[in-house]
Design brief:
Layout: H1 12-22, E1 27-34, E2 48-50, E3 57-63, H2 64-80, E4 88-92, H3 99-109, E5 112-115, H4 122-132, E6 134-139, H5 144-150, E7 161-164, E8 174-175, H6 176-180, H7 189-193, E9 199-204, E10 214-218, H8 219-233, E11 240-243, H9 250-262, E12 265-269, H10 274-283, E13 288-291, H11 293-305, E14 320-323, H12 330-339, E15 344-351, E16 356-361, E17 375-376, E18 381-385, E19 398-403, E20 410-411, H13 415-421, E21 422-423, E22 426-435, E23 441-446, E24 451-453, E25 456-458, H14 460-467, E26 473-483, E27 487-496, H15 504-510, E28 522-525, H16 538-555
Parallel strand pairs: 1-12, 4-5, 4-6, 6-7, 7-8, 11-12, 11-13, 13-14, 14-15, 27-28
Antiparallel strand pairs: 1-3, 2-3, 9-10, 10-20, 15-16, 16-17, 18-19, 19-22, 21-22, 22-23, 24-25, 26-27
Helix pairs in contact: 1-2, 1-9, 2-3, 4-5, 8-9, 10-11, 11-12
């Protein structure tokens, strides 16, 4: 039986142990998985087949005590295979009900959790495990081919143990379920020795400008994220959080930390089909749903394409919709409120380097400021500075810098990048912003994405926000491409809604309300690529429409 020591929480594991003591037999985590080709991989777990609602799906759950017990077993298992405090343990899994117990087991063991992007290529998996110096890798069937491809390479020589989460582990790995079942659920001794000042986790930057950087955070920073989220959204024990984004990313997990702080139930939803999402929210009586912009747009399109869809669902429990990870077009929120007038709306701003969302926070009471990312979050400070680090005047554009309890320790094994981003305790975000007369901060654009055309600065986010107001447009990205006369020109990549019709001339007429120098010189109709956290992959677009076209011209 687990031994839970009551004390004032200072670590994430303390919150888990407190919940296991207070709510031992209440549900902590639910996993919902629609039936599809990988359903056979669920057989090793206790899943219930549910055939009501939008579609048949599998459902599994853990109580708080089961959650804590499993985390203890993971920690004891890691000690049993030679993992010691300070070692690094990587997690390469899709969202699943085992993800968080594994993560907390690593934290309790005193090792560092190293979550990895499930979209990584073989090359990126090898690079990130080597950079983080991971000695153990948890992985599942979805990654078998990628891991097998690189297992024998020099890049993976640091990984000495492969733990397979699923049925029929390959012979060169160890089955996680069978191994962990042999260890006790007693609280590991290391859990009492871990302190807030210890290293806790390594996360990776999105890699939109090259290979990812490894971001080192302390155990105390992880805990601070839970308190910040809880303070911002006031989660109670009765709230139900529908968790959709990937757990490897700080955004999804740190929002879930608010449920950890309150002991509320959370639902891990596999799949982002808008109909499935709405039906899951209804079936589980979700009160809080965190969305990315593309998913919110998909939901709105689904509602418009399926008359009466909302009337057939019981969604009265849903109280809060919030969005993060990228700028949110005000037109999107206006349209959302037309369908969901009862919803509170919020947005948060953050970076993996600031332990995810929360260093800037709008607040549900500030709907009149939609378009802003908000003010300094709980426990945080913000400034907007020029290239010399001097604060700029109100409404002037500068770089947003933040300071608070969740600022990273450093970029792991990268002192040069650390020195560029951390100065006197302030994290330089690389985001250009301005502050209005009421102190609310508005993102203007990424510093590296600013387009300089004919000596004028153009901020793509401003143009993207404007174009999102044109009804036929589903998504849009604005990038700068080289131009011999102007230096750069703005180019808009436009993705139309399914069934919508609009010509380049239609869009140019709509843009007549923009100052002439801000109007994109070219319009390209194409899909807008976004990564797993909803950010536009602008380097891919620059390469597709810039470098490739220039090379083609030079070789003609």
């Amino acid at each position: 039986m687990s031994i839970v020591i009551e004390k004032e929480p200072a670590l994430l594991a303390d919150l888990l142990e407190r919940n296991a003591l207070k709510y031992p037999y209440e549900t902590a985590l639910v996993e919902l998985n629609p039936i599809h080709d990988d359903a056979k991989n669920l057989a090793w777990k206790e899943y219930e087949l549910v055939e009501s609602g939008h579609s048949a799906h599998y459902r599994s759950e853990l109580t708080w005590k089961q959650f804590d017990d499993q985390a203890n077993r993971v920690a004891n298992m890691l000690h049993g295979i030679g993992v010691r405090p300070g070692d690094k343990v990587a997690i390469l899994l899709m969202n699943c009900i085992d993800w968080l117990p594994i993560y907390f087991g690593i934290l309790k063991s005193g090792a560092l959790a190293v979550p990895m992007n499930f979209r990584y290529t073989s090359e990126e998996i090898a690079y990130c495990t080597e950079l983080a110096e991971a000695s153990v890798l948890f992985f599942a069937s979805e990654f078998l081919g990628r891991v097998e491809d690189i297992r024998q390479t020099e890049d993976m020589k640091g990984v000495r143990r492969y733990l397979y989460v699923g049925m029929d582990p390959p012979e060169w790995s160890t089955g996680f379920e069978g191994l962990v079942a042999g260890y006790t659920a007693d609280r590991p001794e290391t859990a009492a020795e871990v302190s807030p000042d210890d290293d806790g986790a390594i996360y990776f930057s999105s890699g939109t400008t090259g290979m990812p950087k490894a971001i080192l955070h302390s155990q105390g920073a992880l805990y601070s994220a839970a308190i910040t989220e809880w303070k911002h959204h006031g989660q109670t024990h009765d709230d139900v959080f529908l968790l959709i984004p990937p757990l490897y990313h700080t955004g999804a997990k740190m929002h879930w930390f608010g449920s950890l702080a309150s002991g509320g139930r959370s639902v891990l939803l596999k799949g982002t089909d808008p109909g499935w999402l709405l039906h899951a929210a209804a079936a589980e009586h979700a009160t809080i749903v965190w969305l990315l912009v593309p998913w919110a747009r998909d939901i709105l399109d689904y509602i418009e394409d399926n008359a009466g869809a909302l009337e057939a669902l019981e969604l009265s429990a849903w109280r809060l919709m919030h969005i993060g990870a990228q700028p949110v077009p005000p037109s999107l929120i206006k349209q959302w409120k037309e369908h969901f007038p009862q919803h509170e709306y919020d947005t948060n701003y953050g970076l993996s380097e600031s332990i995810g969302p929360g260093c800037v926070h709008l607040g549900t009471e500030n709907l009149h400021k939609v378009g802003a990312i908000g003010k300094a979050g709980y426990g945080w400070e913000t400034r907007i500075v020029d290239e010399n680090g001097v604060d700029v005047a109100q409404d002037k554009v500068g770089e947003l810098i933040v300071k608070g309890p969740g600022v990273m320790r450093r970029y792991y094994r990268n002192p040069e990048a650390t020195g560029e981003s951390l100065k006197d305790g302030w994290l330089y975000t690389g985001d250009m912003a301005r502050r209005d007369e009421d102190g609310f901060i508005y993102l203007v654009d990424r510093k590296k994405d600013v387009i300089i055309t004919g000596g004028e600065n153009i901020y793509p986010v401003q143009i993207e926000d404007f174009l999102h107001g044109f009804d036929p447009i589903k998504d849009v990205a604005v990038i700068g491409l080289p131009d011999e006369r102007l230096g750069e020109i703005a180019v808009a990549i436009v993705e139309l809604k399914t069934g919508a019709a609009a010509t380049e001339d239609d869009i140019r007429v709509y843009m007549e309300d923009l100052p002439r120098y801000k109007r994109p010189r070219r319009i390209i109709f194409d899909a807008v690529p976004r990564n797993a956290t909803g950010k536009i992959e602008k380097p891919r677009l620059r390469e597709r429409y810039g470098v490739s076209e220039l090379v083609a011209k030079q070789t003609q």
